[in-house]
Design a protein that fits this description.
InterPro entries: Gyrase/topoIV_suA_C (IPR035516). It is a single chain. The protein is about 0% helix and about 30% strand. A hairpin with a 3-residue loop joins strand 1 and strand 2. Strands 6-2-1-3-16 form a 5-stranded antiparallel sheet, with no helix packed on it. By secondary structure, it is mostly beta strands.
Length: about 240
């Protein structure tokens, strides 16, 4: 399994060494050298040959082959070089012909995936420009199928995307009416693909995909439910 963290490093977890059975699991920080000042971004099963999109909060990113992300040591492998004041924010499967990026300012931009280079390491190129904002999420999808996101208890699909299409590096335009605003956005991923660790899923799965969140921290004892025995009333 591969773990991508906010420091731009990939860490390799041996699946056969993960604790089995029931319980609260084992903290990831005991398995790899992940400092307390960095957090997991995504955790997924390694699939050789798959292409990933990695990006930082400052809007820079690139495609990377999953084969180039496998680390051989506990310290991990540096793939995304993060600038000072920024952190790695996105790691999603790159399966499609269109890249969608959205900032914390709710500006959405779509551009061809061909405009993003494939690299083994670096800062990448500017995917979206921001002023007083940061990259919130990104997704690679088939433009013909449309962009899907969660709207309340349902799912909305937008196929008329021309007004948000542009060139890589632009600021984008205001997201469609009903697009999630305050909550952090979470990307849709294919089954057995990248699992974002964020807690609020906004974009909805397509017919071929599924999305879920995976808690990365060990629950404290205080969070466990307690069961109090009911006292029996005395017999008359």
């Amino acid at each position: 399994m591969l773990l991508f963290a906010t420091n731009g490093r990939f860490y390799t977890l041996a699946a056969d060494r993960l604790p089995g059975g029931r319980g609260f699991g084992e903290p990831v920080r005991l398995m790899v050298d992940l400092g307390n000042d960095h957090e997991p971004v995504a955790l997924f099963v390694h699939r050789p040959g798959r292409l990933l999109l990695v990006a930082a909060s400052d809007g820079r990113g690139f495609f990377v082959s999953e084969d180039d992300a496998v680390a051989q040591t506990r310290t991990g492998r540096q793939v995304l070089n993060v600038a000072q004041g920024a952190e790695a924010a996105v790691c999603v499967e790159a399966a499609g012909d269109t890249v969608a990026v959205v900032g914390s300012n709710r500006r959405l931009l779509l551009f061809p995936a061909a405009e993003v280079p494939t690299m083994a390491r670096g800062r990448g190129v500017i995917l979206q420009r921001f002023r007083d904002a940061a990259l919130s999420d990104a997704q690679v999808f088939d433009g013909a199928e449309g962009l899907r996101w969660r709207s309340g208890a349902g799912v909305r699909t937008e196929t008329a995307l021309d007004q948000w299409r542009g060139k890589r590096g632009q600021a984008g335009r205001a997201a469609p009416r009903g697009f999630p605003g305050r909550q952090p956005l979470s990307l849709t991923v294919r089954k057995q693909a990248v699992v974002p660790t964020c807690q609020n899923a906004a974009l909805a799965p397509t017919r071929k995909t599924s999305a879920c969140a995976l808690p990365m921290v060990r629950k404290s004892a205080a969070a466990r439910p307690t069961h109090n025995a009911t006292s029996k009333s005395p017999r008359p």
